[in-house]
Amino acid sequence: MGRKILFILLLFLISSMLFGADTDIFSFAKSISGKVIWDSRTGSGQISTSRYIYNFIPGVPWVVTDKGDKIGQDAIYIKNGMVMIPDALAKAVTSYNGTAAKKSASGHRVAAIFIDPGHGGKDPGAIGTHKKNGRSFKVMEKSAVLDVGKNLRNKLVSTYPDKKILMSRTGDTYPTLDERVKMANRVKLGPNETILFVSIHANASLKPQANGFEVWYLPQEYRRTVVDSQSINSTNKNLLSAVNTIAEEELSMESELLAKSVMSGMKDKIGKDIPCRGIKQESWFVVRNAKMPSILIEIGFVTNPKEGELLSSASYLQKISDGIYNGIKDFVYTFEHSGKK
Q1: Which of 183, 34, 187, 36 lies closest to 116 in space, CA to CA?
Q2: What's the pLDDT score for residue 278?
Q3: Closest CA to 190 of 169, 152, 162
Q4: In sequence order, what are the residues at sequence separation of 6 or more whose Cβ sits closer than 8 angstroms to the Cβ of residue 164?
Q5: Model pLDDT, residue 106
Q6: Structural contact between residues 126 and 141, judged by C-beta atoms closer than 8 angstroms
């Protein structure tokens, strides 16, 4: 869990007979195929199962899942050195766990994909100036990435008529960075639904020989706030911190998987044309502020003579779009089918 020091609750023994219908936390966790983890710094605990994590603080009358769902009206408590879960709360968690397990096999889905072509309008982005057959031509980042984004949108709309395929801009306009992430963060989602954020850019360098494409995602050590007190209906700081940590780490993992999938798709389509510079980590504004799996793609160097010419070709920009599309499609399939039997 990164900064958190987690300890297994080895101090407590099975004592259900001593406390009537209430059950010790170890026995209960075992009954739902989970394990208990304790954070001595915050005085909070977790019951971790194969797909869900139930966060609790003794004395707080509910548990909160890593999805932000609040369960029960009774508090886990400590008595005679034992951590106990009331019978009513145990039944509520067991019921949720069974329902959630069924939903996870068919209910987790990517509900929306947000495409963000960088720059635009007054901001041209990177510009490359080149010569071909004695004539000069310019490659503008804002134009190349918009073409890629629109091609990508068209393919995704055709494949996923049931999903929202959105763009931060569809013409030569300039939404601010803040406006872009707000558009994505405002998208309404249902239970077990997520949205993907894909920002598309082109690179530049003072060295004309610099070349290649790359995919970025947020560094794993970077911590952002993705869960607020309203979403879990609690102002308890320890509980909020625990739920946010779990949710943030889940987004980080999904962002990395999305980045790898898109990189693979691009290598398949344009890897023979230009080199792959690999997966990289950086806390770009749009990536760190989008509360969802998010990546930033650099499709090539407009300042490189060969890549500049390629990036001015409509057919090549379509190949880039096809590569990104294949990567997203593979990720969506994995995301929506993981857990299916």
Answers
A1: 183
A2: 96
A3: 162
A4: 111, 112, 113, 187, 195
A5: 46
A6: yes
CA-CA distance, 290 to 112, in Å (whole number)?
13
In this structure, are residues 244 and 226 in contact, taking their beta carbons and an 8 Å threshold?
Answer: yes
- The predicted pLDDT at position 64 comes to 83
* φ and ψ of 238, to 5 deg: -65, -45
In contact, 36 and 93? CB cutoff 8 Å: no
Domains and CATH numbers, the chain: 6-104 (3.30.457.10), 109-337 (3.40.630.40)
Distance CA 145, CA 116 (A): 9
**Mean pLDDT in runs of 10 for the chain (341 residues)?**
36 36 88 83 79 84 79 87 90 82 63 98 96 89 98 96 96 97 93 92 97 91 63 62 66 90 97 96 86 95 97 98 97 78 35
Cβ burial, residue 306 (10 Å; 0-12/13-18/19+): middle
Please give the Cα distance from 21 to 84 (Å, whole number).
Answer: 10
Three-class SS of the chain = CCCCCEECCCCCCCCHHHHCCCEEHHHHHHHCCCEEEEECCCCEEEEECCCCEEEECCCCCCEEECCCCEECCCCCEEECCEEEECHHHHHHHHHHHHHHHHHHCCCCEEEEEEEEECCECCECCCEEEEEECCEEEEEEHHHHHHHHHHHHHHHHHHHCCCCEEEECCCCCCCCCHHHHHHHHHCCCCCCCEEEEEEEEEEECCCCCCCCCEEEEECCCCCCCCCCCHHHHCCCCHHHHHHHHHHHHHHHHHHHHHHHHHHHHHHHHHHCCCCCEEEEEECCCHHHHHCCCCEEEEEEEECCCHHHHHHCCCHHHHHHHHHHHHHHHHHHHHHHHHCCCC
Terminal-residue alpha carbon distance, the chain:
28
Angle between helix 141-159 and 314-337 (nearest 10): 50
pTM above 0.85, yes or no: no
Question: CA–CA distance from 252 to each of 49, 67, 110, 206, 283 (Å)?
Answer: 19, 15, 16, 32, 12
